[in-house]
Amino acid sequence: MTQQVPSTEPELAGVRNFRDVGGLPTVDGRRVRQGVLFRSGHLAHATGEDAAFLATLGLHTVFDFRNAADQKLEGPDVELPGVRNVNLPLSDPADGAEFWRMVRDGDLDQLRAILADGKGAERMIASYRMIIKDRTAEHSRVLHALAEDSVPALMHCAAGKDRAGLSIAVTLLALGVERDAIVEDYLKSNAKHRRYKVHRSSSHASAYSPEVMELLSPLFDARAEYLTAAFDTIEETWGGVDPYLEQGLKLSPQTRERLRERLLD
């Protein structure tokens, strides 16, 4: 299939937070190749035009990091002909089910109890740390797949911000991308047209009041402190990126070099 790499970022009607991470600089002066690594929110609501555009990318694999609860809420991804879909949940469907029920259904007092006074941000930081420490097998599988044959690839979760954001960040670390560039790309998820639409059960105005939205904002923001916590966890647990990749993700120098050959100019 011939790849047609878009010259500008497309505005997809039913897929939020889509972008090519090509162009990001590595510490040794190379750049991530255009048209080989994409990220987005879920593909469940992709329109026919969205699907037609995605089909022009020549995708080999879509990595879907959503869990069963996410898929029940949003639906399965649209099928893209000839594209392998790998579902690799990065959080347990039962983990925080009561919490997310509260986010969707809770009244103001309930939301204050679980999110006020920094508790929302603390929860996000703890989640990022946990994914780095506990999901090494999943991240190992992704990197080995990319090194073998799974490019071009698209990684997504629900919003394309947290689980996909971490998986993209881990991939970029393995490629040797500059840390500041990884954070800069991650923060692009805050752009208004990219943000995940908050699901609340009630359509009443009070369900989306300014205070409610302020309480919910730590959950739906991309914040540098979250990604920094993930990086800190790598340092604290493994002593640096190289031992994290080699010991944590079982990525041999040879596999890492194949990964760089596939994804870097």
From TrEMBL:
Coiled coil: none
PROSITE patterns: TYR_PHOSPHATASE_2
Matching Pfam families: Y_phosphatase3 (PF13350)
Tyrosine specific protein phosphatases domain location: 122-205
Superkingdom field: Bacteria
PANTHER family: TYROSINE SPECIFIC PROTEIN PHOSPHATASES DOMAIN-CONTAINING PROTEIN (PTHR31126:SF1), TYROSINE-PROTEIN PHOSPHATASE (PTHR31126)
Protein family according to the UniProt entry: Belongs to the protein-tyrosine phosphatase family.
Name of this protein: Tyrosine-protein phosphatase
Naturally occurring in which organism (per UniProt): Streptomyces levis
